[in-house]
Amino acid sequence: MTEKISRFFRETAPATPCLIVDLDVVADNFTKLNNALPDSRIFYAVKANPAPEILRLLVGLGSSFDTASVNEIQDVLDAGATPDRISYGNTIKKASDIARAYALGIRLYAFDSIEELEKIARHAPGSRVFCRILTSGEGADWPLSRKFGCEPAMAHDLLLQAAGMDVVPYGVSFHVGSQQRDVGQWEQALATTAKIFRDLEEKGVALKMVNLGGGFPTRYLKDVPTSEAYGNAIMDALRKHFGNRIPETIIEPGRGMVGNAGVIHSEVVLISRKSANDEKSWVYLDIGKFGGLAETMDEAIQYPITTEHDGGETQPVIIAGPTCDSADVLYEKSDYRLPVNLRIGDTVAIQATGAYTTTYSAVNFNGFAPLRAYYI
Questions:
Q1: Domain annotation for the chain: domains and CATH numbers
Q2: Mean pLDDT of 362-369
Q3: What is the CA radius of gyration of the chain?
């Protein structure tokens, strides 16, 4: 938590639960990623946090944007970006949304099937297209396999077909998994991508771009490599597999751009036990899975939680949300410990929550309001 966030909470005392995001941290993250991969264009993954304040900041810093819907495209345009700085990166799009995006000037589209490619060719003629390939997601805390992408052999055939359609086969994309802490995971994906490039070039189709995806992590309970470490690993893999013919590259950071910039403040609603012999207390917060902490599903993302009583004796706890839904348990299997003298009504800080929280927050589930956010 930055001093700026601490001061805001002390001086403003906003009602909980709330998210407070330090925009200076976002700007610093952009600079570090830009320095780590200076030859790659940054396409911020808007889905991580589409707040107008973040979008305007990144527009001013020169970022481009990866969008998942027409609404996100419109948000980015409203923030001041031009259409040439926007990619429609969702591989699952309505035909009407493709047509709307095309009318707004978008000319860069992702696909991973012949059906999607045909929609793009029909409703966004002349646009550049890139095909997403499957990756294993190994090493990622939040894998993204199966739903998105196709087998490399299929990608080869689809891009070859694209060359005979009213689109421009532009490149290949992949995503090594969100919160990817293994810097080596890009190497195998780039080996596969380079082979697709070579095979298509032999057939007269010259691809120009590799979308390296996201995966750049935020520090939660475990340390993560630096932006420089990711940059060095990716550049080494590009040189290894493309030699002196390195294509245009783009990256799509989301979590790594905004995750560590935000802190959620939450009130302890109840502390109780289920029996006299329980080894763990249940600590219920005024925010849970449906209030913005959906990534605690399967306890995949483990947020650091701090309190005003830190430094003293702790006890193992189960942490849950406030709703009347039995799935609204955040951490039961993981070894979370909170101070013994934590009391009902105390405030806790859930760290590194700038990404995938406000956008996951339900609208009026159980009557609870969506997560309020402040950008400072």
A1: 23-258 (3.20.20.10), 260-375 (2.40.37.10)
A2: 91
A3: 22
